């Protein structure tokens, strides 16, 4: 259990931040950037939840928000052993499997895509598309960090699958909020 008695510690005032093992790194290190992008993705999902009333989607997103904290802890844990322990949170395959099951279940009620879709289709859908784009950035940041330090490969898989999950959920919400907005290639070329 995490217990925070004091919010500011002054330990980061010189541009360093701490990792799970107590070591320090620069706040602009690729690992720190990936952790920050995961945090931003979690915040974007929190904003999306303000516009989502359906209990099933809210429950899925609540689980995802908890998992994103786990994923942030995973990224902040140095080492090359990615086995979860009581002292180290690691993303595990069953979390990815659940995302895939949820994607498949949501996708069953959707029409096949006929075009790329534009972010929108209602407030909840639009916010999920924004969260999806932030997750994609987090994935790119984690890939870059993985070139510098060892990262759990399942953390990268989770981020990739999560962006798919948010895309499909955005489409599902759009179905209930007015429908997908289809991209019309070149539609404005002639004025």
UniProtKB/TrEMBL annotation:
<feature type="domain" description="Cobalamin adenosyltransferase-like">
    <location>
        <begin position="7"/>
        <end position="172"/>
    </location>
</feature>
<dbReference type="InterPro" id="IPR016030">
    <property type="entry name" value="CblAdoTrfase-like"/>
</dbReference>
<dbReference type="InterPro" id="IPR036451">
    <property type="entry name" value="CblAdoTrfase-like_sf"/>
</dbReference>
<keyword id="KW-0067">ATP-binding</keyword>
<keyword id="KW-0547">Nucleotide-binding</keyword>
<keyword id="KW-0169">Cobalamin biosynthesis</keyword>
<protein>
    <recommendedName>
        <fullName>Corrinoid adenosyltransferase</fullName>
        <ecNumber>2.5.1.17</ecNumber>
    </recommendedName>
</protein>
<comment type="similarity">
    <text>Belongs to the Cob(I)alamin adenosyltransferase family.</text>
</comment>
<dbReference type="InterPro" id="IPR029499">
    <property type="entry name" value="PduO-typ"/>
</dbReference>
<comment type="pathway">
    <text>Cofactor biosynthesis; adenosylcobalamin biosynthesis; adenosylcobalamin from cob(II)yrinate a,c-diamide: step 2/7.</text>
</comment>
<dbReference type="Pfam" id="PF01923">
    <property type="entry name" value="Cob_adeno_trans"/>
</dbReference>
<dbReference type="GO" id="GO:0008817">
    <property type="term" value="F:corrinoid adenosyltransferase activity"/>
</dbReference>
<keyword id="KW-0808">Transferase</keyword>
């Amino acid at each position: 259990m995490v217990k925070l008695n004091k919010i500011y510690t002054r330990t980061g005032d010189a541009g360093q931040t701490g990792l799970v093992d107590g070591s320090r790194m620069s706040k602009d290190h690729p690992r720190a950037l990936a952790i920050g992008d995961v945090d931003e993705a979690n915040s974007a999902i929190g904003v999306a939840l303000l516009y989502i009333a359906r209990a099933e989607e809210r429950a899925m997103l609540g689980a995802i928000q908890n998992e994103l904290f786990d994923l942030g802890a995973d990224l902040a844990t140095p080492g090359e052993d990615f086995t979860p322990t009581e002292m180290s949170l690691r993303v595990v395959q069953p979390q990815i499997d659940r995302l895939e099951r949820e994607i498949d279940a949501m996708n069953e009620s959707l029409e096949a895509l006929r075009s790329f879709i534009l972010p929108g289709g209602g407030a909840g859908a639009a916010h999920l598309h924004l969260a999806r784009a932030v997750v994609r950035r987090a994935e790119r940041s984690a890939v870059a960090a993985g070139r510098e330090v060892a990262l759990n490969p399942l953390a990268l898989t989770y981020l990739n699958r999560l962006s798919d999950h948010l895309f499909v959920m955005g489409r599902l919400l759009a179905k209930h909020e007015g429908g997908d907005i289809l991209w019309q290639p070149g539609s404005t070329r002639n004025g």
